[in-house]
Write a structure and sequence with these properties.
By secondary structure, the protein is mainly beta. Helices cover 12% and strands 36% of the residues. It holds the Pfam family DUF5718.
């Protein structure tokens, strides 16, 4: 296991993969956002940014925490119900190999529990507008597995991802379906190669929720490391219909079913 240094992570670029686990977008009520996004077979829908160091807008706010999720304060931008859901994911940390302004290769060195927490905002123009509302709007475990081989029959073959919600009163509920990492639609080198291709060719447009993540990375100074949320798994019926409240605890866990090792994230939901 390796420690995730949040001070160091301020220099990392953060982005996610949309639609990489069958059924999740439908459960999250977001499948209709991608009606004009054309994909092949079981490919994910695209990639989206959630942290771009150096920017002077909301994407430049460092959102990661290993201890808390902060509900956004009511403002002109955030009005009405603040419906936050845990997005239980595997986070993969990669070294970036650049060729000029193009990402040539991603070299994974660690993976662990990641909460791509989202505000359900119907009509938001881009996915990123649901992802970063300031400090402690994302979650990352304090420790990751030190792994560079993501082949489906490699060291992650026995790993699984699970998510729970512990209410303020102490009751704990299954929030995300306990799922094998190899159950992702795209995983391992297939996923990494697809991401490299998307970084080069996904340009985004006004009629899709996607953006030019590759250009954002260049504008952030060619970051040497990226943290990628590779997609949220399916919700349980409770997870699909339950939003976070102050005092709740969000628990995301990546564990090895063949050993006792785990990367676990626990975040208390707070206000403002």
């Amino acid at each position: 296991m390796i420690d995730i240094d949040l001070t160091e992570a301020r220099n990392w670029f953060g982005f996610g993969v949309a639609g990489n686990f069958a059924g999740h977008l439908e459960q999250a009520g977001e499948a209709s956002d991608f009606t004009k996004v054309v994909t092949e077979g079981y490919a994910p829908k695209g990639i989206f940014p959630w942290y771009a160091p150096g920017r002077d807008d909301f994407l430049g706010e460092f959102p990661l925490s290993s201890e808390s999720i902060k509900l956004p304060e009511a403002s002109e931008e955030f009005q009405g119900p603040l419906n936050l859901q845990i997005e239980p994911e595997v986070g993969v940390a990669c070294q970036v190999v650049w060729n000029g302004d193009t990402v040539a290769r991603l070299e994974p060195f660690a993976l662990g529990a990641f909460n791509d927490c989202s505000i359900r905002r119907p009509g938001a123009p881009k996915i990123s507008h649901k992802k970063n509302w300031g400090p402690a709007s994302k979650g990352v475990a304090a420790q990751f597995f030190e792994i560079s081989d993501l082949t489906p029959d490699g060291p992650t073959a026995t790993m699984r991802l699970v998510c729970y919600l512990r209410e303020d009163g102490g009751q704990q509920h299954a929030y995300g379906v306990d799922s094998p990492l190899v159950g992702y639609s795209y995983y391992g080198e297939v996923l990494l190669d697809w991401i490299v291709e998307r970084l080069a060719n996904q340009k985004g447009s006004d009629d899709t929720p996607l953006e030019d993540v590759g250009a954002l990375m260049v504008a952030s100074g060619h970051p040497e490391v990226v943290l990628i949320g590779i997609g949220a798994t399916r919700y349980t019926p409770l997870g699909e219909s339950t939003y976070l409240k102050p005092g709740d605890e969000a628990i995301v866990r990546v564990y090895d079913s063949a050993s006792s090792e785990a990367s676990e994230l626990r975040q208390i939901v707070t206000v403002g």
